[in-house]
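hiii, so i know i said id send this last week but things got crazy w the move. better late than never?? heres the sequnce for the chain we talked about at the cafe, plus the structure i predicted for it. fair warning i was half asleep when i ran it
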Amino acid sequence: MALSHSSVDAEAAARLVAFGMRPKQLPARDVVYGDLVRRYGEDNAFKALTHAVAAGLGLMVLEVNQQAGAVLAATDESVFEIKMDSYARQAKIRERRETEKVLHGLIHLATAALGYPRPDDLANDTYIGRVSVEQVDAMVREAARMLDERAAQAEANNDPLADAPELEQAWRAYARRPAAAATKDGRLAADTTRGMVSRALRFLADQGFLVPVSDEQGGTYRTTPRYQIQVRELAADAAFDDLLALDVVAVATAGGTLRAAASDML
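okay and structure toks below
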């Protein structure tokens, strides 16, 4: 039995969504994917159908273009939502206590802020940021130091900060951990902060958000258009603005090479 036009269109929309769920697949590498992305941009009815198919799966279409492909985000309670426990398994986090999970949240927040430290960077589709394990670790440590100073000053003035104590504990827990230590076979110990950052960046690379470029500074990565779109969503979060407001990120060159301002002090 021949399929109707509506059925064919629905199948095509579902296929576009399916492509978007393959993080390393890009339209430039697949003719069918490229054609579907082109149709999405030219056919409003097909665009609406794609959004409807995604919504039915508990997904939201953030962007569809030839550079990033179909970029999706899971809605709350979607079967495709990456829960922190699921992330812990994928990133091989040994301890899944709440503090440990928050520490990884801080790492991901710092990675995004280092990758796109200025609003113009997020708005510029051609911008490519670079992040490294050492940069991310240095940024979180410097942010922790500054927040600890603020907390101490507020306490001295009998004016305790309104921040959640759990978050304050997480910053302090990060600062207390060693940055690096080697295992017996010479690998970076998993429970060090750089070991945690290294796993987080590898996870982002597996999701198509970063691309490894060298082993320098513990591992250096470049950002992708897919990650830029995701960070645009994150930039609406107050925590992202708060971290940038600490002014611990500096842009070293116009070409997008970034460093943590605190790195020179470590």
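btw Residues 26 and 44 are 22 Å apart (CA to CA). thought thatd interest u
miss u guys!!
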